[in-house]
Amino acid sequence: MSRYIAAIDQGTTSTRCMLFDRQGQAAAAHQIEHRQIFPQPGWVEHDPMEIWQRVQQVVAGALQSAQVAPSEIAAVGIANQRETTLVWNRQTGQPYYNALVWQDTRTDALCAQLGQAGGQDRFRAQTGLPLATYFSGPKIRWLLDNVDGLRADAERGDALFGTVDSWLVWQLTGGMHVTDVTNASRTLLMDLQRLDWDDEILAALDIPRRMLPNIVPSSATVPYGHTLTSGPFGAALPVCGLLGDQQAATVGQACFAPGEAKNTYGTGCFMLLNTGEEIVHSQHGLLTTPCYKLGDAPAVYALEGSIAITGALVQWLRDNLGLIGSAPDIEPLARTVSDNGGMYFVPAFSGLYAPHWRDDARGVIAGLTGYVNKGHFARAALEATAFQTREVLDAMRADAGVDLQHLKVDGGMVANELLMQFQADVLDVPVIRPRVAETTALGAAYAAGLSVGFWSDVEELRANWVADQRWEPCAEHGARAALFAQWKKAVARSLNWVES
User: Fold this and answer.
1) 165 and 186 Cβ atoms separated by less than 8 Å
2) What does the alpha-carbon distance between residue 427 and residue 478 come to, in Å, rounded to a whole number?
């Protein structure tokens, strides 16, 4: 009897496999990090074969730790880091180049060139996205222009593009080339209304359509394919759930009603607001994106605020400055001081994402005095996450006219109670952490489980959601406003640093 759904969560810094039961509780988990490759400033890469190796290892580890047989698994779902761009050969399966990670900024000149006709919003009406280095389309063009032999192979149909979901489905099933609507929407190449590749944009970026995967629902009407018996699961299991990681977290948080929102605190921060079947085009620097598409039902859309650097700033303090020994050490260090000492940290390492979309910004530390110590550094780093989230929430309120009653939160940083309390104070709304914090993997499991009838409908998923902890805002209004005003001054100092 099938007792579990397997979820592969392939993220920016690590890969995990989790097994979930019908109550949405984790029965097993295994996680391994992979290398971050920085060939030069602004360039960020991953090794596609290393990622596939990690997937095989974590699947084996999860099955072994729970002593679960393949026959006990009903289906497989995948959540993945979005926008990260891979190209590989259809015949050999070998990558042509390392994966270009979503944080990579090498396409800045190309994006500026494309923006000469129509500006940064040239393709926003079709895609819901601005021209930015963040998205996959310009990365594909860079690879076509710079990797020997790739364009000729792409024109012949021998070179395939995919985000990480496509790469993993191709490997797991032995050659199925698909992506779901949420991941396709992050390429800058998909028409939001038609949920299909846009030929006009493909022509503008000079990308051959035949290298692109087929676009499928997030929860399949029929499986995308079955895992190879020679693969890590050792059996033919249906692969039938695909979601970009932030949409997966939205599903895992059971944000199924318009007006419900979640924020995921990982390498970056990503807030999604469900807008139902309505496509809401942002006037305040947010992205319009599919939230999910379950089978034959209409697509549900969302407004998204994407922040590039949050948890990555904590890693930077650990790895580059040696300020802390491990990521959890930042909270006790930050608690050694009562405030930020007047210091503000704007982590624009690869520019600013929502709501600014400024590739010319770079990181700034403002307000330094001789009074500041390492505790203030730690506290300012945490506060930067909360302030950036406040900017996104303000934009959502302006775009959608929604006054949030609370914010559901998830991701690695939500274990930091100092940050969560400060977040509630800055937003002036309660912040709620669920009992199952790994909502990205859970959302992928939900998409796969709905496909095979493991769960009957979204109401059953909503019933699984249970709050773990709630933080109520307690900051005085004047103090909150003063802190945020200083933050905005610091952001202004980060702009116009990189000159064309």
Assistant:
1) no
2) 13
Nearest residue to 252 via CA among 218, 281, 277: 218
The DSSP code for 349 is: B
Q: Are strands 261-265 and 238-244 parallel, antiparallel or unpaired?
A: unpaired
> What distance in Å separates the CA atoms of residue 212 and residue 221, rounded to the nearest whole number?
21
Question: Using an 8 Å Cβ cutoff, are 166 and 215 in contact?
Answer: no
What is the reported pTM?
A: 0.86
CA–CA distances in Å: residue 245 to residues 194, 371, 440: 22, 41, 6
Cα–Cα–Cα angle for 254, 255, 258, rounded to 5 degrees: 150
Q: What pLDDT does residue 474 have?
A: 87
The ranges of the chain with pLDDT < 50 are: none
Nearest residue to 2 (alpha-carbon basis) of 320, 193, 235, 330: 235
The residue with tokens 């559901």 is 408
| Whole-number Å distance between alpha carbons of 444 and 77 | 5
Q: For residue range 205-254, what is the model confidence (pLDDT) as tens digits?
A: 999 999 999 999 999 989 999 999 999 999 999 999 999 999 999 999 99
312-336 as b/e, with b when 16 or more CB fall inside 10 Å? bbbebbbeeeebbeebeebbebbee
